[in-house]
Structures are given as C-alpha cells and as structure tokens.
Amino acid sequence: MDRLLFYLQDQLPFQITSLQPLRNHVFLLESKDFTKYIVKGYPSYRRLRTQVNITMDLKKHGFPHTYSFYNLTNGSPLLFEQTFYGIIEYLPPSAHSFTYEGHDNRVEALALLHQFHEVGRVLVEKYNGRLKKQHLLNKWRERTIAFLNQISFIKFFVQKEIIEEILQWADWSFRGLEQEDGAIDCPTVLHGDLAHHNFLRIEGEELYLIDFDLITIGDRSLDYLQFANRILPHIDWSLERLVKLELIRPFLHSKFFLYGLAFPSDIFREWNRLIREKHYNNPIIVRQVLDLTVGQFFERESFIKELKLALSELSQK
User: Which of 192, 69, 186 is nearest to 131 (CA)?
Assistant: First the structure.
C-alpha cells in the first residue's frame, strides 16, 4: 500500500494526505484540500475503460444517480503492479444506510433500478459486443456444480436431509427454467449485482446505484429476479408480500420467473464463497450462512409450495 501511495503521489495532480484500504484493490484516498476519492483496481485496461464509459453514458442519457470517474489530464492509465486503477468520485454516505428492510426502501430501490434499465435500453446498441450477454442458466449451473463438489464438507454443518431437499428444489427449478427459457423480451444493460450495499444512500438521503463490475446485456427480468431473491429473506419468504411490489408484480405471471424464485442460488453462492475464501473458522460468517440454509428452511419450503401452486394455476389458464 505504501508503494501504491508513492506511485499515486507521483501520478496525480494533487497532494495526497492519506490512503486507507477498504477491501481488496479498493482504497479511500484523501487529498490535502480534504477532497476524498475511491481508488479501485481493475485487472485490465479494457475493464477500466468499460466502467468509465458506462458511468459517463448513464449520466449523459439521464441517469445521474451514480458516481463519476476522475478525468486524468494526461490521459494515461494508472498502471501499478499489473493492476489498472481508476479514481472514482467519493459519495458521502448518509447516516441512514440503505438496507432491504422496510417496504419503502424496497420500493425506492426498484424505482431506481427501473430508471437504470430505461437508460440501459438506450445504451444496448452501443454496448452490444462490448458487454457479455447474461446467461443465467450457465451461471447457476456452474454455481450448482461448485456446491456439489463441496457436499462432503458442507455435511459437517448441515444435516443430510436438508441438503437433499435443497438439491431437489434446485433440480425441479432448473428443469422448469430450461423448459421456459425463451427469447429476450426487453433487452437492456443489466446491473447484475443487486446486493443491498450496491444501493448507496448519500447525504441528502438520495439513493444511488453503484458498482457496475458485473454489468451484462439481457432481459430486464433477470435483474428483477435477482432483486426478488435478495429481498425474500426480508419479507419472510412471502409470495403475497412480493405481489405488493408493483414493479415485480408483472413478472409473477411468468413461469420462468416463478421457477427462478425457487432456485436456491443464494445458498449455493454463500457456501461456495465461504469455502473459497476459507471463512469456515469465522463463527459470525458460518452462523449467517447456516441461518440462510437451515434457519430459513421451513419458510422457504412453504414458499416453494406456493410457487408450485401458482405455476399450476398459470398452466390451467
């Protein structure tokens, strides 16, 4: 970090007073005039340029609720130890951080996502070929395989009967998704990582959308599906409460969407991450993943019964 600090002091046209690590390849920088920036590393210049361009285009076409990149006057990329660094506008956070708790928060986040998709539709043509297409089934297939490869380890934490039931949900859901996978209805730029921490409430209480590392092109329903999967633990796995969200309601008439809600993507994701990052000795993280897997098991079981009933009713129409 000291070497990076000296490098940035040499490259940037302002004096740096501090550089603090936030996470891997992400730092908080403060200049002598007390201006703050986020310094973020990217594995390639192409990835960095894509991020710079997409945030610029979002603002240009009417989506102001995100950050901007600092424009280096000499135009040369910041390359340090095989990592390309971007200097990002620091958005001062509100004292009231955003979470998925509370109906109003969820409605506000969906409205912001809708605005993002509307601008994303305008940008699709420009970014076709520059952004990957979203292949949800391939992504979930790979996630399932990684989970299955760790089953013998996971059984030390979770009883066999629960794991078998979760795998049955995954199999039923995936077979339904394969049958219903169809053409893209409304192509747009997808955010792809709708964790609550990528919605940032700033000073003044406005909500911003950040971190576009996983953007792709695909049907907007895929972002809404991920959003729904993220909020379900916060609404007690209730299909009735999901229906109350106006922007999600139309998708609940789609068999593909309903099958997608049943897929235990979050369980697979969190166990794969826990093992990959060797967090199995961290009791706090293990407890969180166990709550997702075991603590919410019976609520999720009831929810999947509701989904099967909804799918049966759709088939009869």
Answer: 192
Q: Residue 317: what pLDDT?
A: 75
Give the CATH fold of the 2-89 domain.
Phosphorylase Kinase; domain 1 (3.30.200)
Q: Tell me the domain boundaries of the chain.
A: 2-89, 103-316
Q: Residue 188 above 70 pLDDT?
A: yes
DSSP string across the chain: -HHHHHHHHHHSSS-EEEEEEEETTEEEEEETTS-EEEEEEESSHHHHHHHHHHHHHHHHTT--SS--B---TT---EEETTEEEEEEE--PBPSS---S-SHHHHHHHHHHHHHHHHHHHHHHHHHBTTBPBP-HHHHHHHHHHHHHTTHHHHTTTS-HHHHHHHHHHHHHHHHHHHHH----SSEEEE-----GGGEEEBTTS-EEE---TT-EEEEHHHHHHHHHHHHGGGGTT-HHHHHT-TTTGGGGG-HHHHHHHHS-HHHHHHHHHHHHTT-TT-HHHHHHHHIIIIITHHHHHHHHHHHHHHHHHHHH-
Q: CB neighbours of 123 closer than 8 A, spacing ≥ 6?
A: 54, 57, 58, 61, 189
pLDDT digits (tens, 9 = 90+) for 289-314: 999 999 999 999 999 999 999 999 99
Query: If one looks up domain 103-316 in CATH, what number appears?
Result: 3.90.1200.10
